[in-house]
Amino acid sequence: MRHSKSMYWKLSAYFFFFFFTWSASYSLFSIWLGQEISLNGAETGIIFTVNAIFALCMQPLYGYISDKIGLKKHILFLISGLLLLVGPFYIYIYGPLLQYNVFLGAVVGGLYLGVSFLAGIGAIESYVEKVSRKYEFEYGKSRMWGSLGWAAATFFAGQFFNINPNINFWIASVSAIVLFIIMMTIKVEMTESEMERAESINFKQVGNLFAKKHFWFFILYVLGVTCIYNVYDQQFPIYFSSTFSSTALGNQVYGYLNSFQVFLEAGMMFLAPFIVNKTGAKKGLILAGFLMAFRIMGSGLVIGPYGISAMKLIHALELPIMLISVFKYLAANFDTRLSSILYLVGFQFTSQVGASIFSPIAGTLYDIRGFSNTYVLMGIFVFAFTTISIFTLKRDPKNLNKLDPKPKSHIEPA
After folding, report:
1. 60-105 pLDDT, tens per residue?
2. Which end of the chain is more exposed for a tag (fewer CB within 10 A), N or C?
3. Residue 295, burial from CB neighbour count under 10 angstroms (0-12, 13-18, 19+)
């Protein structure tokens, strides 16, 4: 029990500083691109598309390696090492390259951000989820600290950005040093049977996933629902700031709003496992989808910063329910030996594929139709796919709410 508590706190601290580092360097990314680098909506859409492409290239690789090495922390070591360079990278490499040539900067930035943050987060989340099953603590309660880390950084990000955006980047690097130190203290024990179980994974078993219709139905849900919240968030800070008398004031208030939202999200991350255990994983996914549709559509219908802020805060209810439901849905319906592949390919990879398709479309629509009209269209899209998923997602097993912290694998012949 003592070892379990120690592992929980170490991984929670790792989550906190990973998200703190990410938030400090990335929460105002679209504002930085627009105001500091002077990119328009379409060019910003291209940046997000390239980031998504690099992330989706890494996610299957991260997923297969993670499941193959089990609970060894090789990938955490790689990601933590890359994050030590985050401040100098933004200031001395990424920004100047984007100003020199947008496409060259997009490629270099996409490679770094894709490997470290955008694909790295999925690898970290799937790793902690595996450890949580081994040491018998709720993943959501550990992931809550990641939300708190993001909120802590965004609370001051807007103010620092108005003084000098580089301050946020240097803060991110300092946080990454703490993150690296924490990573070095994490030691997860692996039994011989656990190592054999991980090493038994092969490409045939991975390929068998794609022969399952319910895996494709899950992917359909991700493409039509979950990937849209990433597209929505990409340029939302620009829209929000435009509703204020000055851009600087908008940036500062957005920092406060984002921080408050993520604090609420952290509280919901604590409660989400209880909610999903009551509703079931499928109903949790459907609930999250309808909340998302309401939030996105509402952002285009309400007027003024107060109404827009209220819509944005619904994200704090929706994301925790969705994330916990995803892990529980995959654990209940598929082979848990492939949990990293299932999450990184079925959820993260598919989300990035959707983002790479929809980001430039959304960016162009923002320039032509405006943010409000685009958000209404996006909300209708999410509502339609959530409704379809009521009939396509697999019904929860009868014993879902009584799942053992270490769910049994649905073993198939090799």
Report:
1. 899 888 888 888 889 999 999 999 999 999 999 999 999 989 999 9
2. N
3. buried
DSSP string, 178-194: HHHHHHHH------HHH
DSSP secondary structure of 267-321: HHHHHHHHHHHHH-HHHHHHHHHHHHHHHHHHHHHS-HHHHHHHHHHTHHHHHHH
252-295 tens-digit pLDDT? 788 788 778 878 888 898 889 889 989 999 999 999 999 999 99
Q: Which residue has the tokens 């600290």?
A: 145
Q: What are phi and psi of 74, to 5 degrees?
A: -60, -45
Distance CA 377, CA 362 (A): 10
Residue 24, CA atoms < 13 Å, CB-side half-sphere: 26
| Side-chain half-sphere exposure of 205, counting CA atoms within 13 A | 23
Are the C-beta atoms of 239 and 370 separated by less than 8 Å?
no
Contact 235, 44 (CB under 8 A): yes
Question: Which residues, 6 or more positions from 104, have their beta carbon under 8 angstroms from its beta carbon?
Answer: 97
d(CA 11, CA 42): 38
Nearest to 270 by CA among 323, 225, 333: 323
Q: Determine phi and psi for 220, rounding to 5 degrees.
A: -60, -40
CA distance 329 to 310: 29
> Which residue reads 């848990």 in tokens?
336
Residue type, 156: F
Read off the tokens for 196: 């054999």
- How many residues are recorded in the chain? 414
Residue 407 DSSP label: P
